[in-house]
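Postdoc handover notes: sequence design on the structure in folder B. Input tokens:
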């Protein structure tokens, strides 16, 4: 097995969440030669703000022949990609297009009238990052609910139970009825999450690692956010089966290669698990300045369509990148 990497920079056009601003983000594409002429590509995009090891740390671990969960997942995806490429197939040969939520990482960037445009282009669900200015956010959320969107609100674990309770109490019935779920309302805790769940449906994402599975009488959340970029997908779906959770597959606000990988997983899981799978959240490349990769993803409103090429696509672009082989120590 030969692993090469190609560094890239993503330049956010808006603030991405309550934990991070608009600083450029670094990641690497991976190219894995599995032997027998099988080559696959994937993305490695750490979020140290959310607890991941930094890119440098991960690459140096890889050189030492060690893996993080993130690296493991990147290799898993490079393997899936290699399989498809060797069979001359694209992820869309196996799955049908899926509707994505519209991600609003900073509502202040949404201009007047833009919600109507989003609606007209076919989106039915907004995912809104909250926790920076709840008063202003509540106003925006009410406006969005009034336009008949379903809402997913993501606190990224930044709130507290008190803030959350006050926030939910401040919402009127219409708004509450439009909330599909609230993600990571505050740092995970069995009891206070169980209380939060009495108020609204709760989804767990970056608080996942704090859960001691098997410890609770009744599970204190309803939805598991499945991020193939950093989570063993089979394990995640086993948990969903066991605890009767619904699941949303999302990208990792990463490179278009990572986005199409997440979409490929979402399409596969939709086929296998049907209604358990909620609409995915893989449409995230607009958070960054458009590059050649992003521009290669055809989009029809909420749908990401087939990218030309085999595997996750991008064949010509991937070949043109500068690749550096990782010398294993
Ligand atoms: Mg989240």
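Designed sequence:
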């Amino acid at each position: 097995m030969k692993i090469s990497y190609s560094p890239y920079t993503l330049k956010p056009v808006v603030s991405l969440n309550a934990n991070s601003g608009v600083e450029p983000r670094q990641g690497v594409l991976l190219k894995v030669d599995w032997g027998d002429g099988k080559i696959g590509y994937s993305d490695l995009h750490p979020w140290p703000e959310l607890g991941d090891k930094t890119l440098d740390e991960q690459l140096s671990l890889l050189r030492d022949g060690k893996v993080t969960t993130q690296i493991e997942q990147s290799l898993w995806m490079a393997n899936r990609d290699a399989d498809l490429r060797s069979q001359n197939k694209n992820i869309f040969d196996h799955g049908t297009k899926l509707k994505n939520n519209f991600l609003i990482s900073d509502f202040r960037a949404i201009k007047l009238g833009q919600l109507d445009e989003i609606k007209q282009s076919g989106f039915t669900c907004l995912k809104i990052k909250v926790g920076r200015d709840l008063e202003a956010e509540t106003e925006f959320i009410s406006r969005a609910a009034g336009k008949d969107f379903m809402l997913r609100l993501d606190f990224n674990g930044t709130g507290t139970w008190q803030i959350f309770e006050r926030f939910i109490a401040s919402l009127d019935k219409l708004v509450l009825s439009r909330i599909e779920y609230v993600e990571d309302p505050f740092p995970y805790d069995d009891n206070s999450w169980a209380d939060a769940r009495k108020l609204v449906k709760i989804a767990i994402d970056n608080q996942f690692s704090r859960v001691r599975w098997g410890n609770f009488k009744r599970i204190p959340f309803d939805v598991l956010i499945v991020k193939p970029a950093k989570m063993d997908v089979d394990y995640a779906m086993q948990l969903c089966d066991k605890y009767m959770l619904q699941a949303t597959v999302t990208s990792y606000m990463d490179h278009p290669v990572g986005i199409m990988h997440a979409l490929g997983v979402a399409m596969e899981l939709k086929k296998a698990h049907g209604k358990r799978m909620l609409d995915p959240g893989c449409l995230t490349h607009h958070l960054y300045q458009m590059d050649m990769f992003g521009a290669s993803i055809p989009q029809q409103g909420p749908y990401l369509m087939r990218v030309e090429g085999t595997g996750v696509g991008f064949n010509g672009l991937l070949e043109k990148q500068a690749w550096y082989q990782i010398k294993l120590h």
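Context for whoever picks this up: Residues 154, 156, 183-184, 205-206, 225 surround magnesium ion (CB under 6 Å). Don't rerun without checking with the PI first.
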